[in-house]
Write a structure and sequence with these properties.
The protein is an alpha+beta fold. The chain has a single domain (2-158), classed as Alpha-Beta Plaits, CATH 3.30.70.560. Helices cover 31% and strands 25% of the residues. It has five helices and eight strands. Strands 1, 2, 3, 4, 5 and 8 form a six-stranded antiparallel beta sheet that branches. Strand 6 and strand 7 (108-110) form a beta hairpin. The longest helix has 16 residues, at 14-29. The radius of gyration is 15 Å and the shape is globular. The two termini are 25 Å apart.
């Protein structure tokens, strides 16, 4: 069984779309470990705040199969991919880590670069798995979080019924 970490985010009807995603993931993968939900400003464009979290799960499905299922869940939430990387979205699910796999071929890119770039990914990941080692750097997620400039992109814990 692979240990898998997913990042989830939404800035359109997040209180509806994040629970939808969690329900779909539970139906497919069973028990999930779920971080707190964090509110943060949009990055790269002017838009509503995002709500983000990280989930951990185990599965014997391949990373490619998980990416396919992520796209199915995106479609359920009504996500339509636009021309811009940085835009509002009802749901964004990213495969962050799949065991210690290192792969950079679409659609499977792990470990996801976002882990070390964005507080809304690193903080909930460090919360769920502080001793987990990044497969490239060898540092723990907690070490990365302690070194991160958290003031560069502030987060606020918020509540969503998941």
């Amino acid at each position: 069984m692979a240990k898998i970490y997913l990042g989830l985010g939404s800035n359109q009807s997040a209180e509806v779309n994040l629970p939808l995603a969690i329900g779909e993931l539970r139906d497919r993968y069973g028990e999930l470990a779920i971080s707190d939900v964090y509110r943060s400003a949009a990055v790269g464009f002017d838009g509503d705040d995002f709500l983000n979290l990280v989930v951990a799960m185990e599965s014997d499905k391949t990373a490619l199969k998980i990416c396919d299922e992520i796209e199915f869940i995106h479609n359920l939430a009504g996500r339509v991919r636009g021309d811009h990387k940085w835009e509002s979205r009802p749901l964004d699910i990213d495969l962050l880590l799949y065991n210690d796999l290192i792969r950079d071929e679409r659609p499977v890119r792990v470990p996801r670069d976002d882990i070390l770039q964005y507080s809304f990914v690193l903080r909930p990941l460090a919360e769920l798995a502080p001793e987990l080692r990044h497969p490239v750097t060898g540092k723990t997620m907690l070490e990365h979080w302690q070194e991160f400039d958290a003031a560069s992109h502030p987060l606020v814990v918020t509540h969503v019924d998941l």
